Every structure is written in structure tokens, then in C-alpha cells.
Amino acid sequence: MSASLLRRGLELLEQPGQAKVPLGLQRGRAGPWAAGAARPRKKAPEPGRNKATVKGRVVKSAIEEYHKKKPVNHLRENLQYMLKGRLVADKAVTEQVLAQNRGRKSKDQPPEKTEKKKPKGTVFTEEDFRKFEREYFGVP
């Protein structure tokens, strides 16, 4: 079926009270830069105040501008906000949250904590060693 036959069929199905589509909007010619459409002209400069002149301009104080742009220290407010809530979560809950946020790669896992071995002390005292020495070697 050709496009012209399709268009004629649509025209027949159109209701009689409905207006036809304007020629510019047919066949995908939409927008200001469509083929055959006139280009929009630049607006002429409106008569008004010349912004290059100084007349009527309010002089701004450099000190006021400095105070406006001066950084404000929010440390005290932030500390009060942070210290206001003293709710501490259980250690098990925090560990679970940290484990969920941790990646699955081995580089993301924390190093395993190894328990330090305490040097074993002797159960023998100095007197026991002297006694053994006397009995074994015969030293007085």
C-alpha cells in the first residue's frame, strides 16, 4: 500500500468537523529550522538604559562584599549536633552492617587478627634449679 493511498484513506475516515493539518506540520517538517520555514530574525536592541554608563549605579562597599563572602565557622553547631544523639548500637549490629558493606574480594576483607602467643613462664623456681643441680651434679 502506498503512502498516497494511505493518506486518502485517512482523509475519508476523518470527521467532517475536524480541521486539516497545516502544510508545514505534514511529512515531519516540525520546528523552527524545518525545510521551507522562514528563519527567525534577531531582535533589534530595545531602547533603554545603556549598561556601559556609570550613571545610576550604586557603589558597593568592598568591606560589605568581603563580609558577605567570608567563610562562616560551623564547628560549634556541628559539634552540638553530633553530641546531641548519644545512641550507641550493639557491636554485633555494627559488625553485621560493616560485613554487608564490605566487598567480596579478598582485598576488601580485613586481615584476620592472630592472637599473640604469650611466652610461657616456667613452673620451676630458682630454688628448684639449685636443688636439681645439687642432686644431679653433686655440687654443694
UniProtKB/TrEMBL annotation:
List keywords of the entry alphabetically: Nucleus
Keyword Nucleus: yes or no? yes
Q: Which residue ranges are recorded for the region named Disordered?
A: 23-56, 98-125
User: Basic and acidic residues composition bias: which ranges?
Assistant: 106-115
Is Ion transport tagged as a keyword? no
One Pfam assignment: AROS
Q: Where is the composition biased (Low complexity)?
A: 27-38
List the InterPro entries hit by this protein, alphabetically. Answer: AROS
Q: Which GO terms describe its cellular component?
A: nucleolus
* Similarity comment text for this entry: Belongs to the AROS family.
Q: PANTHER family annotated for this entry?
A: ACTIVE REGULATOR OF SIRT1
| Name the UniProt record assigns to this protein | Active regulator of SIRT1
Q: Which gene encodes it?
A: Rps19bp1
